[in-house]
Write a structure and sequence with these properties.
Elements: H1 21-28, E1 32-36, E2 39-42, H2 44-63, E3 67-68, E4 74-75, H3 77-82, E5 95-98, E6 104-107, H4 112-119, E7 133-140, E8 155-165, H5 168-188, E9 195-201, E10 208-215, E11 221-225, E12 232-234, H6 240-246, E13 254-268, H7 270-275, E14 278-280, E15 286-288, E16 290-297, H8 298-309, E17 326-330, H9 332-343, E18 350-352, H10 360-370, E19 374-378, H11 380-384, E20 387-392, E21 398-402, H12 403-410
The protein binds one RNA strand of 76 nucleotides through strand 13 and helix 10.
Length: about 400
RNA sequence: CGGGGCGUAGCACAGUUGGUAGCGCGCGGCGUUUGGGACGCCGAGGUCGCAGGUUCAAGUCCUGUCGCCCCGACCA
């Protein structure tokens, strides 16, 4: 990509709307644009990060037999009425809209109801189970208060996976597989060390659900953990019964602020029962399908990662999430020309700063702000050594690499 | 939804007792510059969130409304 082709530009001053450092950088660097409180646009750079996150999630979910689909945003009230979640008293985060011909529709806050309803067409026998559909979809939640930049928004991109199983046992097996897949995802996203599977409040069919919480100062949640972090729980379930259950004492727990980056939930037959999703067993009986749901907030993850990884100069993307791997710049006519030669054919991985009139200092500042993993500088100095200068954005370490070797690395 | 703060140029801000709106960054032009956000000169850009009201006169005072930020509550 050529810097000159960006229609976005970096801003020196952070928009006053944002207080979280990561969110300020995302806006200053042109990754996102704010439309309203809790409503953001993903600009080309931000979209590439989003797509990179999605791809990692997609790969891990496909490995455990899940299948991607894309459901509608406009939702029919009918299945929601059957589960008693259409009522604004019961679900206060609904956005509603009306049909020109009259009648009301909802804007998807989640998809248990429509998907359960949809599955009635495809599941009628034990032979049809299990099914594990998932999607990356835009959700709408009318939060009373949006906050923390893109961490808590009214419109957001979510990966939601749903499981349809024969019974509790087969459900539990898949549930555990999802938990393992999530752990791999967070490791690949670069936040594995600070992300914990926590005990959270359950529901009708299960004592606990699990959340995945990433420790960060800008998190909205409080988590508690024991010495070796083998037991981690949410503040909401910190009570005597739970402590006894998990075999830990309150005094030995420490707390930290964290952001929820995923959750997995046993739904049981709550929705299938209400909506009438049943299957025929081998011996001809009717049984409700046993369900689970599993979410990952993709756009929130970008916010969490931006926040966790940034420093006082700007964003610091892990290699697999960065919009581009290299920020390439030449100094002086000769350096710029050499940079162009190296750039040719590597438009997907290299961002070349081809602005001739901009001083190197400004390019360095922009390179730091944008946060590509490696900054590559070609100058008179490096050319003397027949090398390029590669600086690791994270560590700040710089080394000279022979130009020919770097060309090979690119290829 | 309770409490607090705030809407003035693309961004960040100033604007005194009410008297025809300003600085910085960014943007356009010319020139000088090019290893950590350069410099000089010239220039463009605003119905002061919106709607009423008070007044000879409103960015400034009053009422309403929309929006934004923070704390709290809320978040299967």
């Amino acid at each position: 990509m050529r810097y000159k082709h960006f229609f976005t530009k970096t801003l020196r001053a952070a928009p006053k709307d944002e207080t979280a450092r990561g969110a300020q950088y995302l806006m200053r660097a042109g990754y996102v644009y704010k439309e309203l409180a809790g409503v953001y646009d993903y600009l080309p750079l931000g979209l590439r990060v989003i797509e990179n996150i999605k791809q990692i999630v997609r790969e891990e979910l496909d490995k455990i037999g899940s299948q991607e689909l894309l459901m509608s945003t406009l939702q029919n009230p009918e299945p929601w009425q059957k589960t008693d979640r259409w009522d604004i008293e019961k679900m206060d985060i609904w956005f509603r809209t009306t049909l020109a011909a009259g009648g009301e529709l909802g804007l998807a806050p989640t998809h248990e109801e429509p998907l359960t309803n949809l599955m009635k067409t495809y599941i009628s026998s034990y032979k049809d189970l299990p099914a594990y559909p998932y999607q990356f979809q835009t959700k709408f939640r009318n939060e009373l208060r949006a906050k923390s930049g893109i961490m808590r928004t009214r419109e957001f991109i979510m990966k939601d996976l749903y499981s349809f199983s024969l019974d509790r046992e087969s459900h539990q097996k898949f549930y555990d597989e999802v938990a393992e897949a999530y752990k791999k995802i967070y490791i690949r996203l670069g936040i594995g060390d600070d992300t914990y599977q926590t005990f959270a409040s359950g529901g009708v069919f299960c004592k606990y659900s699990h959340e995945f919480q990433t420790i960060t100062e800008v998190g909205e949640d409080l988590i508690w953990f024991n010495e070796d972090k083998s037991v981690v729980l949410n503040d909401e379930v910190l009570n005597d019964e739970v402590l006894k259950d998990l075999g830990v004492k309150r005094e030995e727990l420490k707390s930290a602020k964290a952001a929820e980056v995923g959750n997995i939930f046993t739904l049981g037959t709550k929705y299938s029962g209400a909506i009438g999703l049943e299957y025929d067993t081998k011996d001809g009986k009717k049984e409700p399908v046993f369900m689970g749901s599993y979410g990952i907030g993709v756009s929130r993850l970008m916010g969490v990662i931006a926040e966790k990884m940034c420093d006082d100069k700007g964003l610091v993307w892990p290699e697999h999430l960065a919009p581009y791997k290299y920020y390439l710049m030449g100094i002086g006519d000769e350096g710029m020309q050499k940079a162009e030669e190296l750039y040719a054919g590597h438009e997907e991985t290299v961002l070349i700063d081809d602005r001739a009139e901009v001083h190197p200092g400004e390019k360095f500042a922009d390179a730091d702000l944008l946060g590509m993993p490696y900054r590559v500088v070609i100058s008179e100095n490096s050319l003397k050594e027949d090398s390029v200068e590669v600086t690791d954005r994270k560590t700040g370490e710089t080394k000279l690499i022979k130009t020919a070797d770097f060309a090979k690395e690119l290829a």
